[in-house]
TrEMBL record, chains A, B:
Annotated Pfam families: NAPRTase, NAPRTase_C, NAPRTase_N
Domain Nicotinate phosphoribosyltransferase C-terminal residues, every copy: 381-424
Protein name, as recorded: Nicotinate phosphoribosyltransferase
Gene3D superfamilies: Aldolase class I, nicotinate phosphoribosyltransferase
Class of this enzyme: ligase
Family of the protein in this entry: Belongs to the NAPRTase family.
GO cellular component labels: cytosol
PTM comment: Transiently phosphorylated on a His residue during the reaction cycle. Phosphorylation strongly increases the affinity for substrates and increases the rate of nicotinate D-ribonucleotide production. Dephosphorylation regenerates the low-affinity form of the enzyme, leading to product release.
Protein species of origin: Persephonella hydrogeniphila
Pathway per the UniProt entry: Cofactor biosynthesis; NAD(+) biosynthesis; nicotinate D-ribonucleotide from nicotinate: step 1/1
Gene Ontology MF, one: nicotinate phosphoribosyltransferase activity
Amino acid sequence: MVFGFVNKENMSLLTDLYELTMAQVYFKKGMNKTAIFDFYTRPVENRSYLVNAGLEQLIYYLENVRFTQEDIDYLRTTGFFEEDFLSYLKDFKFTGNLYAVEEGEFIFPNEPVVQVEAPIIEAQIIETFLINTLQHPILVATKAMRCYSVARGTVLVDFGLRRAHGTDAGMKAARASFIGGFAGTSNVLAGKEYGIPIFGTMAHSFILAHIDEIKAFKDFAEIYPENSILLVDTFDSIKGVYNAVKAIKELGMKHFKGIRLDSGDLLKLSKEARKILDSEGFKDAKIIASGGINEYKIKELLDKGAPIDGWGVGTELVVSADLPYLDCAYKLVEYDGRPVMKFSSKKKTLPHKKQIFRIYEDGVFKKDIITRFDEDIEKGKPLLKKVIENGKVVYKLPKLTEIQKKAIENFSKLPEELKDITKTVHLYPEVSSSIQKTVKELERKYLNGELQ
Amino acid sequence: MVFGFVNKENMSLLTDLYELTMAQVYFKKGMNKTAIFDFYTRPVENRSYLVNAGLEQLIYYLENVRFTQEDIDYLRTTGFFEEDFLSYLKDFKFTGNLYAVEEGEFIFPNEPVVQVEAPIIEAQIIETFLINTLQHPILVATKAMRCYSVARGTVLVDFGLRRAHGTDAGMKAARASFIGGFAGTSNVLAGKEYGIPIFGTMAHSFILAHIDEIKAFKDFAEIYPENSILLVDTFDSIKGVYNAVKAIKELGMKHFKGIRLDSGDLLKLSKEARKILDSEGFKDAKIIASGGINEYKIKELLDKGAPIDGWGVGTELVVSADLPYLDCAYKLVEYDGRPVMKFSSKKKTLPHKKQIFRIYEDGVFKKDIITRFDEDIEKGKPLLKKVIENGKVVYKLPKLTEIQKKAIENFSKLPEELKDITKTVHLYPEVSSSIQKTVKELERKYLNGELQ
């Protein structure tokens, strides 16, 4: 029996077959000059900005990607590869440069979030893992920031592990949602690995295993006197609130951390629950809401005055339910010093090694300008940082709390129309005249039949 | 720097905090009688059936879940746990029973796909991982089967690794889509780990790195004379087909495996491409289509007569784009011999340890009947098999090819209206009178205030 865990030892094979077959052709043909690849996103519905995340995992991969003897032995059995190329793979490592927009920065369509500069065999082989490891964190950090943007200081916690697409997505979602402004996660392993605060309440099964609800609440509160969020909706939410109050009082406790509502009309129930808790002397007890929560529901409930103090946001966060995938790509933009672009249908690419300059006006984000790498824009903040140089990591990742702080600061600098979760505004970067010139030149050559 | 890989050693912590805090309360209160939990799905949009998958990973987890010293040390630092409970965790393993519907069987709303019978602490702790490891494979196997059901014998290949939500989802998607009738995957690691056939073509970057398209095609076809699917849409798809033909002819090759169309009007382009290939003497050359493919597009294109021989199905398959999550739950249905149910809002549960009997009529699936575990339905096929007994695996997983065969056979036995991808029909199982009697009894007790 196999499980299929991906780890440091086997991650090099977590790639599309064509990356390796193309690599063998390059190898056989002696074609291995420096290539520049851009990873970028295309405009998507329901998102006016994306929050960058996932870089830590990408760096780890590029530092550690190797083909083990077991990998090589498997590749030999496929019949696609010859011995000279398999020997090359035995010594394979990433020796190129990585430029990247930092985690917690906001990104917009067509911008090279990550730029790889490496011998083309290396730059090609890493493609699949690179996209896989970046897409999902960006989706979740963005969804989280959208929740944060409407939460008015209420507490957001990732409850999504069980509904994430597999184990790795559960880990990535916890980390990315923290970057997007969440206070923590229910995922214990993410707490351990990333140092993220962990949170938890109780399940319906806990109530049902007891003979009655009050006994269940008392059992829990006795063991966790400071830390009991009592789940009140197993039978009837309002009766549940009264039972919770009763349990806390019967235990003679002064402190009552709070309750969780997991179903029903959360506006009505939270208002009733607040009244009961206040009138029973538990003004500090918090009301946590969960069950199908997303940014739209948070906004609606808070707009209508729901006295909800915190949110367990699960499924819709971790699968980014209203946008479960990004239209993103990793495209060749330069080979051996020659700028290249793809012409097919509407999916044109921008040639050249690049830089992104971010322009602010009176502290508010105004626009981005994409330039050739060696151009300089006065007063612009260059976004692409050198992260790996000749295969060596030259960038120090900030702490996760610092990345979160940066993301929140960046949000505050957005123009108002981009902050509105009910609208989609596509803010495209300006493209410098030098890149535009190359685009025109390549289009001319293409129309003249010099490219075919 | 940490990567966050989940593996055999740390997977026990891949759980929601509340599983462990509830477990500590049970432990402290000496409450650890046998519990029965059902994992089941609720009705969803766009799916008239679900294809079961993910069992192999669940079995591996239940066989191997342990808390290491490192896990215990971390849990101690959280402040949530006391030493006696941490000692208990040190010796923790799953000692219960697992009943499951086999992979490749079709499942319907409210049916216990998996049933766990174990001391409640064990049954509770495994909840999060169990749901995480089952949901995504079921989503993908189902999406794959929907593609298979309209593909009329054309070849389906999973191209989705890059857009899957993290590394594990990429692995699970390859395995689950194979169960759902796919011929293979582009994911090399899935090929190695699961023995799934691997497929690949070439990328736009390969064309762009060359000075011209014909040279690129020739380079590739020289190295892979039997196995070159040439990607023709980098500049212009039809010109690309001519260039592909030219490359093959200039190499003097008799065999031409085929071309891939990745953008544009696939109906028009595939028809034109077919004409060109045929008239140039390459009647055997295949046309593969990719780019935003899903079951609806496959059906539409084939209905309109597109001469497409194979499909690279990526993003929409692996994220199950039109249904990115299941409404699924893991609920307590019996504790210490006492049947229990949850009453909140519309999410009622069915009490008791159960069996599902599947009834066929003239070889066509007619209905399922959910009974108490010890009831017997004449001529019904019991679906829940004993997989783990007292912590030991007693079930031999079929080969993946056998599971696929079973899934395809099961599909053929569905009534026609359930096969139609354009309709959603919710086929609910019958509930036996003995379970209905318990439901009524519990409702009566609840209304009388005996349950609260």
